[in-house]
Design a protein that fits this description.
The protein contains 12 helices and 10 strands. With about 300 residues, the protein is of the alpha/beta class. The protein has a single domain, classed as NADP-dependent oxidoreductase domain (TIM Barrel, Alpha-Beta Barrel). The strands form 2 sheets. It has an 8-stranded parallel β-barrel with strand order 3-4-5-6-7-8-9-10, surrounded by 4 helices. Strands 1-2 form a two-stranded antiparallel ribbon. The longest helix has 15 residues. It is globular and about 50 Å long.
Length: about 300
């Protein structure tokens, strides 16, 4: 899989990254053996970015136990901010310090390539102490780079404050606010850009759980947007959706969370096809502009899920 520059960092990253949010989603969680096989397939497909977080169940521990022998084969990103079992308030400086150390322990490594603040508010960012914790971790060699993961005005402030090397934000066929609101500013600052929810949680698939708030919101959006390409073959729809995200100017990495190894082989093959035609990209953008107006994208956990008009 082709590797590309990642903002102003010295990393060269695969266009696809593995997002581990779903790794512990099934009853009983995933086993080390399952994760070892899955991530072996992912790395063998040419992916060299694995993204996790302190609040993704046992994700960090499973990754650390499964991939200890292949640590040099990939870049390891995590997020901090939610207590996730630690006896400290979310986003407090002490919590962040403890969370980073716990992540290093769980992931069985002495350093990370990227630590990201996990969707904290712009009010907290303005105070500066949460950013300072990440800077100290970088200075101490705990992480090579620091980033922010979030959406809307919080993400916009994270970009304009100039403190971060990397931005992770929602970019997909059902969530395009950042394309005009945030990404141009991030590009101007040479930030590495990670697109999360790059396949819009495949919310158009009938087997998806409508009780999942993220899927429900995206499903409602896609019903309104009524893209023609979602009415045919599901694999073809996923191909267009993923390639749309990777065609957005400035996007370096699109995170995909599939736990099916055949999907990874398919996704790797899609990249060989290349970007979607410019005319199709513009048609998707025009439809978005026709049926939407600026409103907050998927809010962070601290705010809960809101509706959309």
């Amino acid at each position: 899989m082709e590797k590309r520059p990642f903002g102003k960092t010295d990393m060269r990253v695969s266009m696809l990254g593995f997002g581990s949010y779903k790794m512990s989603g099934k009853p009983g969680g995933s086993t080390v053996e399952e994760v070892d096989r899955l991530l072996g397939w992912v790395l063998d497909a040419g992916v060299n970015v694995i993204d996790t977080a302190e609040c993704y169940g046992q994700s960090e521990e499973l990754i650390g136990r499964a991939l200890g022998q292949r640590r040099e084969d990939f870049y390891l990103f995590t997020k901090c901010g939610h207590a996730a079992g630690l006896d400290q308030p979310d986003w407090s400086p002490r919590l962040l310090e403890q969370s980073i150390e716990r992540s290093l322990h769980h992931l069985r490594t002495d350093h990370l390539e990227l630590v990201q603040l996990h969707s904290c508010s712009r009010e907290l960012l303005r105070r500066g102490d949460v950013i300072e914790v990440l800077r100290r971790a970088r200075d101490a060699g705990r992480t090579r780079y620091i980033g922010y993961s979030g959406d809307w005005r919080d993400a916009q402030y994270a970009v304009t404050c100039g403190a971060f090397d990397v931005l992770q934000t929602s970019v997909n066929i059902a969530d395009q606010e950042s394309i005009e609101l945030i990404l141009p500013q991030a590009n101007a600052r040479q930030m590495g850009i990670i697109a999360k929810r790059s396949l819009a949680n495949t919310a158009w698939k009938s087997e998806q759980d409508p009780a999942d708030a993220a899927i429900s919101i995206y499903n409602k959006r896609l019903t309104t947007l009524d893209y023609d390409f979602l009415k045919g073959d599901l694999d073809a729809a996923a191909s267009i959706a993923l390639r749309f995200t990777l065609s957005v100017p400035g996007v370096d990495i699109a995170l995909v969370g599939s736990t099916n190894h055949e999907h990874w082989r398919h996704n790797a093959a899609l990249l060989a096809v290349g970007s979607i035609p410019q005319a199709q990209f513009e048609a998707i953008r025009r439809r978005w502009r026709k049926f939407t107006r600026w409103r907050q994208s998927l809010p962070s956990r601290r705010l809960g899920w809101h509706g959309w008009v």
